Amino acid sequence: MLLGYFFSNLLLSQNFLLREVQFSSYNKINKEIKEDVIGKSIHLINLDQISDNYSIDENIERVSVMKSYPDRLEITIEKYETLALITDYRTQSPIYYKLYKNAQTIRVLPHEISSLNFDNNIIEVVNGPLDGNVYGEFVNYLLLLRNTDSSIKTSFSLNSNKLTGEIGDFTIDFTSAVNLGKKASAVYQRLQEPCPSFSFTVDIDPVKDAIIVICNT
After folding, report:
1. How far apart are CA 133 and CA 123, in angstroms?
2. What is the pTM of this model?
3. How many Cα atoms sit within 13 Å of 75 on the Cβ side?
4. Phi, psi of 142 (to 5 degrees)
5. Contacts of 160 (CB under 8 A, 6+ apart)
6. Do 92 and 75 meet the contact criterion of CB atoms below 8 Å apart?
7. Residues near 188 by Cβ (< 8 Å), separated by ≥ 6?
């Protein structure tokens, strides 16, 4: 009984009532979370339940919640990194998406584009249909180049199976959106030793499974 009395007093102690919730970044769910937990005993807070509340936001990759005794909660919100902005011209009016590093796409409304903090890589889809893993191919390419030289930005144009791109003054014929991870390495090497025409084709030898780079004339 004495032990139960001790724990009861601990849970009800004014010293352990939540007075502050610290968020790493803004999210519309924050206000609801704060209103729900402020004034409750920190010992009774379910951290997993708080994290689960953020699962409805597709822009969030992970959330970590920590108790900072005696009276503060710290919530770290990590959003997916946007690698590129996709513009799909296959409808009457263009549709915009953010491409995340997990190859997922999230639709963006036209008025939201100017506020996006993406990496300045552009993917224009002119015609289709698209292969099921096409955005995974783009992610492989973008991540490899970013890790090699983050200043390199690519503007792609995908027209059915035909993929072309521009990097600054360079024009690139990727032939298709296949093996873009391997092609990214070849693109970087060619950028270091530019073709006289600043135009080149990157293809793959199906027999040797090796990348071929040809300067265009």
Report:
1. 15
2. 0.81
3. 28
4. -65, -40
5. 127, 128
6. no
7. 145, 148, 149, 152
Residue count of the chain, please give it.
217
Whether CATH 3.10.20.310 fits 2-79: yes
3-class DSSP assignment, residue 193: coil
The residue with tokens 């783009």 is 138
Domain residues of the chain, as ranges? 2-79, 82-215
Query: How confident is the model over 27-70, as pLDDT tens digits?
Result: 999 999 999 999 999 999 999 999 999 999 988 999 999 999 99
Evaluate whether 2-79 and 82-215 have a shared fold.
no
Classify domain 82-215 at the CATH topology level.
Rossmann fold (3.40.50)
Written as six digits, the tokens of 76 are 């770290």
Nearest-angstrom CA–CA distance, 121 and 100: 12
Residue 63, class by beta-carbon neighbours within 10 Å (0-12 exposed, 13-18 middle, 19+ buried)? buried
What tokens appear for 138 in the block?
């783009």
Beta strands (DSSP E) in the chain are 20-23, 60-68, 72-79, 82-88, 95-100, 105-108, 122-127, 155-159, 162-167, 170-173, 199-205, 210-215
Task: Note whether 196 and 215 are within 8 A (CB).
Answer: yes
Q: Residue 10: pLDDT above 60?
A: no
Distance from C-alpha of 88 to C-alpha of 126, rounded to nearest angstrom: 7
What is d(CA 73, CA 37) in angstroms, rounded to the nearest whole number? 9
Distance separating alpha carbons of residues 10 and 81, to the nearest angstrom: 42
